[in-house]
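User: Some background: our group keeps a shared notebook of sequences we're curious about, and every so often someone picks one and asks for a predicted structure to add to the entry. Today it's my turn. The entry only has the sequence so far, pasted here. Could you supply the structure so I can complete it?
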Amino acid sequence: MTRSLKKGPYVDVNLKEKIADQSPEEAGVIKTWARNSQISPAMVGYTFGVHNGREHIEVTVTEKMVGHRLGEFAPTRTFRKHGGAMQKELEAEKQQAEQAQAEAAREQAQESVE
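Assistant: Of course. Here's the predicted structure to add to the notebook entry:
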């Protein structure tokens, strides 16, 4: 559910204080745990270190990001890959193709030496 328009966007108070005193060039990376804080136009140009539960991910704010939340740009889960038999078959085919290319390159190198 969205926030009421009469309340305005939620921006963390501590985050406001950190950007109020400095220009984007002076500030460097501003570390924050306020993933739910919305990006306001005053934040454009700043670089935030948004915590994803394990580390701080650097997010440089642009004009297109205004209205979104900081947490949207720091994913909390790492996608590895889809598994299953089909994936194993694709990987095996890819490996065979790489081996065939390497073998063809070796044969070409031997022919050029002779």
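Suggested note for the entry: The helical segments are 13-20, 24-27, 85-113. The longest helix spans residues 85-113.
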